[in-house]
Design goal:
Blueprint: E1 5-9, H1 15-32, E2 48-54, E3 57-65, E4 75-81, H2 90-101, E5 107-112, H3 116-120, E6 125-133, E7 136-143
């Protein structure tokens, strides 16, 4: 089953959407991965938020951060899929949508080390690392996005 991708700047998010974004990120990063970090990093406000809903429930999410707010290039972060919806290609679909929206502009990410092969399957190349970020091993990776 395919789900439409919703794209919104921060100021266009409803209270319900914002709550579900925070909830999904907490489920994946704090509860599942046990990362103790401050999620409110003030990068949500300049970002475009991509998400999929299934009957009103947020099932996949990504934020696209504009240049200058994390890296000199575009970045995406907080990519999260509800555990009940994994292995369906939802994250791949949402990542490709974000990359297509900024085609021609490079994308730099700080990807968790265990996902290195996954990001390399998109064409990302390691430019730094490994290094620790939020107590998880990461690689900085870039995609020319041509």
């Amino acid at each position: 089953m395919s789900y439409p991708i919703i794209k919104k700047p921060f100021d266009a998010l409803t209270n319900q959407e914002l709550y579900q974004i925070i909830d999904l990120r907490n489920k994946v990063f704090i509860m599942e991965q046990q990362i103790l970090y401050l999620d409110t990093d003030y990068r949500d406000q300049p970002s475009v938020h991509y998400f999929m809903l299934d009957n009103g429930k947020m099932i996949c999410y990504l934020r696209l951060i504009p240049p200058g707010h994390k890296f000199d290039e575009y970045a995406f972060s907080r990519v999260a899929t509800d555990p009940d919806y994994r292995s369906r290609g939802l994250a791949r679909t949402i990542i490709m949508a974000a990359m297509n929206d900024i085609k021609g502009q490079p994308v730099r990410i700080s990807g968790q080390a265990y996902l290195r092969d996954y990001y390399e399957s998109f064409g990302f190349k390691v430019v730094k690392g490994p290094y620790m970020e939020e107590d998880i091993l990461h690689f900085e990776m870039i995609h020319e996005n041509r």
